[in-house]
Amino acid sequence: MAEFKNPNQQGGGENKSLLVMMLVLVTVFFGLQYFRAKTNPQTVSPNAASSASQSTAPAGSQPAPQPGAPVNKSAANPAATSAASSGPAVQASAESTTTIENELYRITFTNRGGQVSTWILKKYKDSDGKPLNLVHTQAAQQFGFPLSLYTYDAALTANLSNALYIPSATGNLAAPAILTFNYSDGTVQVRKTFSFDETYVLHADVEVTRNGAPIRALVSWPGGFGDQDNAIAYSSAQLDVARNAKEEHIAPKKVSGGDTLNGPFDWAGTSDNYFAAIFLPDTLDTATVATLNNQLDVAKTIRRTGLGSGAPAKGSIEVPILGAALGDTRGRTQTRIYAGPKAVNVLHTIRATGNAITLEPLLDFGFFGPIGKYLFLALQFIHSTILSWAGAWGWAIIILTVIINLVILPLRIKTMQSGLKMQRIQPQMDAIKERYKKYKATDPKRNEMNVEIMKLQKDNGVNMFGGCIPTLVQLPLLFAFFTMLRSVVELRQAHWLWLPDLSSADPYHILPIVMIISQFLVQFYTPSPGVDPQQQKMMAFMMPAVSGYMTWNYASGLALYWTVGNLISIAQQAVMNRTSLGREMREIAAKRARRKAGTGTTIQGKR
Predict the structure, then answer these.
(1) Which of 337, 460, 543, 557 is the most core-located residue (most Cβ within 10 A)?
(2) pLDDT at position 22, please?
(3) In what order do the strands lie in the sheet with 287-297?
(4) Distances (CA, A) of 424 to 418, 437, 585, 588
(5) Parallel, antiparallel, or unpaired: how do β-strands 213-215 and 218-221 relate?
(6) Contact present, 401 and 568 (Cβ < 8 Å)
(7) Mean pLDDT of the 165-189 span
(8) Burial label, 311 (beta-carbon count in 10 A; 0-12, 13-18, 19+)
(9) CB count, 10 Å around CB of 291?
(10) Pairing relationship of beta strands 333-341 and 201-210 according to DSSP bridges
(11) How far apart are CA 261 and CA 44, in angstroms?
């Protein structure tokens, strides 16, 4: 196929637009890396702003006496003291477990603390291919297990987490079910009741009293998730809060451990890229959230290569472990708890108490969020309706890429038409520039030259940015794909041909290499009227280098989308170059080349 090497002179407006486009490409890419950290709001410490409310908090929010220690009756409410005296101890003699199971999970409780020891999600696997335990065992052993109690007295918190409760049932239970734990040391009484159904949501009802007076005890998810075994997972941890239908996603460095956030709350909790533990309080206005932020050395458990095989790292590696605890200013805590995947079809069905606010905002697609969301919905539609076999997500990406390129095909044709118009008036533009070349760039006469060129382009229907339209359309799609592929749990561990996980890098770098070659061919075959040949050569090598860097260590699904798009562009350009439009562009370019060279020799075009 014959093509041309455009020998236009330097200094055209198109040169500047291409440089601007290149700058935008690089700036947006690196900007996205810091978007979440830069835009996440800071949690508000209640110590200064809410000192008044803290001073009137329930007794449980103040330093509490050691369990079993004598109570200062003069400071207690006389009515409450007379109504409730120390009762008999309620404690189990040995440790036991109770397992609650439905089609989605298998949760094992221990009566030591009446808390969760393992939380298996049946539909998801960990890095070793085993059923995923949502509990981050290493973090839980140091900071506490899920559904433990958090009080503002460290000694009381530790005592309630290690005491042996009496469960209402042991062994295996099938949801729907109710499990209750009771404990008393004669002074402090605890009742924890959990209700389960066929969904990922359970209900907790917790009441802690001391001599009949309520203690402010919060239900806690102390931190981390079982899939956090690589740097990306730890860096994606965040505190999620929704108040008055406005959600916040707060990065670890902006979360102060031990702070208390006052309600109202639609929901609140923690999440990483793919999983979340969210509290949905029964009473929004009186709900409070304690934010937990600890440091954990994961050198022995973290993987160098992320999901998939990888050897443990060496040395000390400190990572943030976020957690949250929800309570009620009245003492008794009643809340629903969602612990599961950040899947669109699940999150949009779970609503806050008393309003229409769902958990769907947990999915944060970044700066190009709306585009990323609808890209994924389109991808999910293709996967569920056209493709349903294992490993079909890769084919769904390919089909979506084909559809997108067919949609923007008219823009490609419009670009060629704009380029042809630019070539037709190029001799006149050259003549104008020739008249003004004796003036310096700072001379006011140069403005007259620009005015003449713009008038010439306007009179002939030429848009100097016409050649950039397809790129301007594709850039948001590209970066939306970039953030979307790393945010949706449906693509976690989704394999395609040799790729074990479309959300992580190609382990063999096959796709990035093919993508670099195809990107070079796109630059090589696409006409660029008005662009200096030297600048065109620079772009032909610079664009593949940038795109190769972007896909080398990032989601292979992005490289698949980009590579397929490049191959389609090459095929489309090959066809368009054979049309009358393409032939005329080559003829004009050949004439200009002969005229500029001062010879009648025909310059061979690109093939």
Answers:
(1) 557
(2) 54
(3) 148-150, 218-221, 318-328, 287-297, 260-262
(4) 10, 21, 9, 7
(5) unpaired
(6) yes
(7) 96
(8) exposed
(9) 23
(10) antiparallel
(11) 7
Torsions phi, psi of 173, nearest 5? -125, 145
Cβ 272 vs Cβ 134: under 8 Å: no
Q: Bridge-partner residues for 310, per DSSP?
A: none
In this predicted structure, which of 164-178, 187-201, 359-373, 534-548 has the lowest mean pLDDT?
534-548
d(CA 607, CA 605): 6
pLDDT at 605 over 60: no
**CA angle at 489 for the pair 485 and 493, rounded to the nearest 5°:** 80
How many CB atoms sit inside 10 A of residue 310's CB? 14
Cα–Cα separations (whole angstroms), residue 599 to 430, 590, 603, 605: 19, 11, 10, 16
Alpha carbon distance 532, 496 (integer Å)? 41
Distance CA 179, CA 167 (A): 7
| Distance between CA atoms of residues 265 and 324, nearest Å | 13
What secondary structure does DSSP assign to 213-266, as a single string? EEE--EEEE-S--TT--BHHHHHT-EEEEEETTEEEEE-GGGPPTT-EEES--S
CA distance 251 to 38: 9
State phi, psi for 164 to the nearest 5 degrees.
Answer: -95, 110
Please report how the helices 556-576 and 409-424 are oriented relative to each other, as an axis angle in degrees rounded to 10: 50
Q: Which of 430, 428, 426 is nearest to 418 (CA)?
A: 426
